[in-house]
Recover the amino acids of this structure.
DNA sequence: TGGTACATGTACCACATGGTACGCTAGAGG
DNA sequence: CCTCTAGCGTACCATGTGGTACATGTACCA
C-alpha cells in the first residue's frame, strides 16, 4: 500500500515544511534537504512531485477535518472563534488559504477540496439548526454567513495579527445574531460569560 | 523611467495572463509566448522575473484600488455586494486572494499589499461612519465585520459559483445590521428595493 | 547623412529541475 | 545459507530555467 512508516514520517515532515514555507515553489530537492532526506526518496515514496503535492494536500485536508470536529461541536459561537483564532492554528490556516486559492485554479490534487471545505463546515451547523426547528433555507444562509465571517476575520487576523480587533468584530457579529433571534435556544447560544 | 508604451503593453498582457492562469508557476518563457513576445523582452523591460512579478502585483493592487473607489462610494451595502459579486470581477478577485496568500508569506513585491488591502477598505467606511456620529471603536468593528463578510462570501462564491446563495447570506447580514441600528440614517442605509 | 536611443531577435550560458538506472545494505523467511 | 524485499545513496540524464552577449532594426533629430 501507499502507506508505510517511512512514508508517513516523510509526509509529516513535508507537511510541517509546507506549514512553514508554503506549498508553492517547493522543489523536491529543497524540501528533501529541509527534512533531512534526498529528493530520490521523495520520488521513491510518492512516485512524483505531483504525488507528493497531492499527499500533502490530502493530509492538510485531514487535519482541517479534525479541526472541524474539534471546534464545530463547541456550543457557542464565541468559543468556536476563540479556538480558531488561537495562534497555534495560524500556520494551518495560512496554508489552508494557500491551498484554497490553488484549488480555485483547479490545480492537481485539489479535487473536492473546495466542496469539502464548504460543505464540511456548513452541513453540521445546518443540521443542528434544522434539528432546533430553524427553516432549512434560513439555516443555510445563517451558516453560510457565519462561515464567511469566520474566514474573513481569519484573513484579517492572519494579515494584521490583531487578535483583539478581530475578536471584537466577531463579538459584534454574535451580538447581532442574538439580537435578531432573542435568547430562545438557537444555534448561537454561547453564553456571554 | 520604468514606464514606456511597450512596457505598459506587456504589463497589461501579463496581468491579463495572470488573471487567467494565476501568478504562481509563471515562467518567463511561458508567459512570454502566451502574450506574444519573448522572455528576452520581459527581462529587458522588467529587469528580472521578480521585477515582472512586482510590476504585476502593483498593477493588480492598482486595479483593486480602482474597484474600491468604484464600489465603496456606493451607498447601500446591498449595491456594494451586487457590484463585487458581479461575474466580471471574479478573475480579479481570484487573483487577489492568490496574491493575498503570497503576501501572507512575505513573498517579494507584496510589501504593503496586506496593509493597503485592509486599511484601504476600512478607513473610508470608518470615516463615513464616524462622520455620521458613530463611535470610532464601534465603527471600526462594524467595518471590519463588513469586510470579513464580503471577503468570506467572495471566497464562497468563487468556490461554489452560487450567486443566489451567497447573496442571500449577504442580505441576511444587512438585515441583521438594520435591525440592530434601526433605519435611522446609518452607514448601511441601502434601500431594500 | 550620421548618430543616438529604444526595441527586438538569436544564440548562448550555468544551473536547477523532475525523473531514472543501478547498486548497496539490512532484515525477514524459507 | 540463500533469497527477496523495503529502504536508501550515488550518479546521471534531458529539459527548462533566469539571465547575458551581441547584433540588428527602426525611428527620430541634427
Amino acid at each position: 500500500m501507499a502507506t508505510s512508516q517511512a512514508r508517513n514520517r516523510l509526509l509529516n515532515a513535508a507537511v510541517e515544511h509546507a506549514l512553514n514555507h508554503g506549498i508553492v515553489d517547493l522543489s523536491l530537492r529543497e524540501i528533501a534537504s529541509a527534512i533531512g532526506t534526498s529528493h530520490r526518496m521523495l520520488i521513491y515514496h510518492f512516485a512524483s512531485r505531483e504525488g507528493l503535492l497531492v499527499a500533502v494536500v490530502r493530509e492538510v485536508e485531514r487535519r482541517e477535518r479534525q479541526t472541524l470536529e474539534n471546534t464545530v461541536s463547541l456550543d457557542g459561537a464565541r468559543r468556536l472563534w476563540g479556538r480558531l483564532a488561537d495562534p497555534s492554528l495560524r500556520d494551518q490556516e495560512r496554508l489552508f488559504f494557500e491551498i484554497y486559492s490553488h484549488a480555485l485554479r483547479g490545480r492537481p490534487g485539489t479535487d473536492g477540496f473546495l466542496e469539502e471545505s464548504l460543505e464540511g463546515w456548513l452541513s453540521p451547523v445546518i443540521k443542528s439548526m434544522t434539528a432546533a426547528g430553524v427553516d432549512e433555507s434560513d439555516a443555510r444562509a445563517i451558516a453560510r454567513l457565519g462561515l464567511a465571517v469566520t474566514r474573513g476575520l481569519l484573513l484579517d487576523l492572519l494579515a494584521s495579527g490583531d487578535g483583539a480587533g478581530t475578536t471584537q468584530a466577531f463579538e459584534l457579529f454574535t451580538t447581532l445574531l442574538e439580537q435578531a433571534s432573542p435568547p430562545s435556544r438557537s444555534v448561537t447560544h454561547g453564553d456571554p460569560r
